Q: What sequence folds into this?
């Protein structure tokens, strides 16, 4: 079987060194490389095993913690999320690269913390993203984000399976935000039809909440 050959950047990511260090190691003869017919440099995978003592899985795992709440009056919950997540990473032996937080709806795609997380992922500076619940990262389309991150070798770890009971109120608020957006498109921003639609929609949600509590 032919040995797998790694691009220099791939080798650096697995071993956990910078490209500058890699070039220095090559010049010093600490890393063996081969040249492709086109002259490109490649590193045999056996070099990874040699440098990491035959245990590439022992490489340090870089983690980014991400926590989110919808409103500023939930700051205590945000702090609890961060505490749980950092303790989890410590127990797993992960090195926390950054702790990112957002106070915004899970529907917003321009969250500052989320955009910074994307930058970490595409620049391959993280191995795992840790969240408490799936909806902390995004209310809809979690599977799309999971697939996107995976293309950069990043996995998402959700440490709690079930959503908290107090998340119900937040979900209702997000549903109202969605309904407001669609109503604006259907009836116009100032239309009396939009206002009546939203009033009826909110009334329906209240009836559903009453039915669940009875």
A:
């Amino acid at each position: 079987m032919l040995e797998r050959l790694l691009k220099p950047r791939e080798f650096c990511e697995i071993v956990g060194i910078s490209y500058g260090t890699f070039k220095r190691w090559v010049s010093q003869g600490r890393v063996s490389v081969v040249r492709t017919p086109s002259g490109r440099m490649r590193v045999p995978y056996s070099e990874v095993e040699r440098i990491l003592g035959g245990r590439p899985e022992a490489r340090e795992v870089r983690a980014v913690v991400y926590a989110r709440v919808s409103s500023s009056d939930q700051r205590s919950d945000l702090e609890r999320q961060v505490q749980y997540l950092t303790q989890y990473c410590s127990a797993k032996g992960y090195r926390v690269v950054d702790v990112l937080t957002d106070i915004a709806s899970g529907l917003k795609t321009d969250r500052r913390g989320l955009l910074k997380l994307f930058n970490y992922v595409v620049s391959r500076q993280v191995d795992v993203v840790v969240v408490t619940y799936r909806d902390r990262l995004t209310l809809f389309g979690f599977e799309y984000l999971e697939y996107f991150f995976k293309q950069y070798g990043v996995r998402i770890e959700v440490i709690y399976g079930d959503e908290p009971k107090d998340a119900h109120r937040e979900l209702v608020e997000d549903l109202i935000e969605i309904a407001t957006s669609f109503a604006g498109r259907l009836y116009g921003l100032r239309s009396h039809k939009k206002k009546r639609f939203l009033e009826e929609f909110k009334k329906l949600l209240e009836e559903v909440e009453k039915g669940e509590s009875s």
User: Anything to note?
Assistant: The radius of gyration is 24 Å. The beta strands are 5-6, 34-35, 41-44, 62-69, 95-103, 128-131, 155-158. The mean pLDDT is 81.
